[in-house]
Automatic annotation (TrEMBL):
Source organism of this protein record: Novosphingobium aureum
Source organism superkingdom: Bacteria
GO biological process: D-galacturonate catabolic process
Protein name: Altronate dehydratase
Keywords linked to the UniProt accession: Lyase
Family assignment from sequence similarity: Belongs to the UxaA family.
Coiled coil: none
Nucleotidyltransferase as UniProt keyword: no
Domain SAF: 15-82
Bilayer-spanning residue ranges: none
CDD domains xref list: SAF_AH_GD
GO molecular function, one term: lyase activity
Signal peptide start and end residues: none
InterPro entries for the chain: GD_AH_C, GD_AH_second, SAF, SAF_UxaA/GarD, UxaA_altronate/galactarate_dh
Length: 501
């Protein structure tokens, strides 16, 4: 039975703010107090008087300090709360044993229908990808993909292959050092993704990101599915590329979906355009699924390192070893140093959309964001472009930008991205992207963007929502098209860090 949603929520017993689950007018009494001013949906109000300089607490954790005295019943937001974040910290493991690895769930696992590759990996799609080594041939790659899709329309319509896609980008030349290495690493990682049954690496010929160096970055086990073409060396590069694509299609069309256990899934965890409901509905929903997946022996990848600032210590406490703890702590501090070296504060977040949706500080945003990873032990730390091989939860080096971080997740092996949002976005990525709305209004307004409404958690309870969410994940993993796929939204973005020559 659907329950009536209460007007407000106190997330944790230690909190000194409540959250409006629907718009509240001044003068109404909630949580035993009278509101002094209107409070928008997803925004916060003081549950009792908060002295100037005192900590403001949500999720049982500090989300900032009061800029001035805040009276009980007052709206709590950017006008009266400031971040308490500082720069790098000396993280120390607690004086207790490290977190235990996730216990394997006994008994039968839920199943899905995917493609089992020769190397033992599992794919949610059976596609041909064209990866340009350089931006100069990005539009050429798109032309090749369009023509090949028309040529093989019968196989696509019959489900023998799931599509032929080009992923253009503006990089690969005029780059140096770590910047060039990062571009090469993420493209090589994408070439490894199980969803790509065949890959054409398309170059120009004179770029910094030379094709032979790029191909060497692809692990030996994945090189058999590669074809390589330098446009300057080919007579008619469109015809030459088309012939190579035809070879890849012929091989890929032999694959068939089969029943696979939940443990065969590798998912990326992502949030974008968050609001005050993201940490209450959508992100905890992902977290509970993450616990189920990692408990079954599957892989989950968490990234967006700058959106961990202020919530990193509880996450670090879940490390399974001192080595994992140290690498995760170094990754967080390294990102803080990345900001500081540019003369920027580590708290340069949340975005205008986040603020409009009720998020006040980066601490609040981060404490909501890390809930996507549930309570799973932290098993590994990955460099940008590195493959996730360990069962359990991995932490991946990448900034928070939606396109950049989602691309990084795919390059590390995620075959499905679970993307929560309170504001909405149509953008999709290299692998299927399941959009999860944090609030009912977004889900109803944008059904062509949204795949699941996490406000079901408030209306019907977490158990019902969890069951429905798992069913949708398994359906999308088994071939049902996400909203972004139906809309033709497929893109990548590469993390550009260095100078441009």
């Amino acid at each position: 039975m659907t329950a009536e949603i209460p007007p407000t929520l106190k997330v944790h017993p230690a909190d000194n703010v409540g959250v409006a689950l629907s718009p509240l007018e001044a003068g109404v009494s909630v949580e035993g107090i009278r509101l002094l001013e209107p409070v928008q949906q997803g925004h916060k109000f003081a549950l009792h008087d908060i002295a100037e300089g005192s900590l403001v607490v949500k999720y049982g954790q500090p989300i900032g300090r009061a800029r001035k005295a805040i009276a009980a019943g007052a709206h709590v937001h950017t006008h009266n709360v400031a971040t308490a974040l500082v720069g790098e910290l000396a993280y120390r493991p607690a004086d207790v044993a490290m977190a235990a690895s996730a216990a394997q769930i006994a008994g039968d696992q839920p199943t899905w229908r995917g493609y089992l590759r020769e190397d033992g990996s599992a794919a949610t799609r059976n596609e041909i990808w064209i990866l340009p080594s350089v931006g100069c041939v990005a539009l050429t790659a798109e032309q090749i993909a369009r023509e090949a899709s028309l040529r093989h329309d019968d196989l696509i319509a019959a489900g023998r292959i799931d599509g032929i896609h080009a992923f253009g980008h503006p990089h690969g030349c005029s780059q140096l050092g770590d910047d060039l290495e990062g571009t090469r690493a993420v493209l090589a990682g994408l070439a490894c993704n199980p969803n790509a049954a065949g890959v054409l690496l398309l170059g120009l010929g004179c770029e910094s990101n030379q094709l032979d160096a790029l191909a060497k970055e692809v692990p030996e086990a994945a090189r058999s599915k590669l074809r390589i073409l330098s446009s300057q060396s080919a007579g008619d590069e469109i015809a030459a590329a088309g012939a190579l694509i035809d070879e890849l299609v012929a091989e890929a069309s032999k694959a068939h979906r089969e029943e696979l256990p939940l443990s065969a899934l590798c998912v990326g965890l992502k949030c974008g355009g968050s609001d005050g409901f993201s940490g209450l509905t959508a992100n905890p929903l992902l977290g509970r699924f993450c616990d189920t997946l990692t408990g079954a022996g599957g892989r989950a990848i968490l990234t967006e390192i700058p959106e961990i600032f202020g919530a990193e210590e509880p996450l670090l406490e879940r490390a399974v070893s001192r080595d994992v703890f140290d690498r995760a702590a170094a990754l967080v501090n390294g990102f803080k140093r990345y900001y500081l070296d540019q003369g920027l504060p580590v708290s340069e977040n949340p975005s205008p959309g986040n603020i409009a949706g009720g998020i006040t500080t980066l601490e609040e945003k981060s404490l909501g964001a890390v809930q996507k990873a549930g309570r799973a032990p932290l098993c590994d730390v990955l460099d940008y472009g590195e493959q996730a091989v360990a069962a359990g939860l991995s932490l991946l080096e990448s900034p928070g930008n939606d396109a950049v971080s989602s691309t990084a997740l795919a390059a590390s092996g995620a075959t499905l991205v679970l993307f929560t949002t309170g504001r909405g976005t149509p953008l999709g990525f290299a692998v299927p992207c399941l959009k999860v709305a944090s609030n009912e209004a977004l889900a109803q307004a944008k059904p062509h963007w949204i795949d699941f409404d996490a406000s079901l958690t408030l209306r019907e309870g977490s158990e019902s929502a969890d069951d429905a969410f798992l069913a949708r994940i398994l359906a999308f993993a088994s071939g049902e098209r996400t909203a972004a796929e139906r809309g033709g939204q497929r893109a990548i973005a590469i993390w550009k860090r260095g100078v441009t020559l």
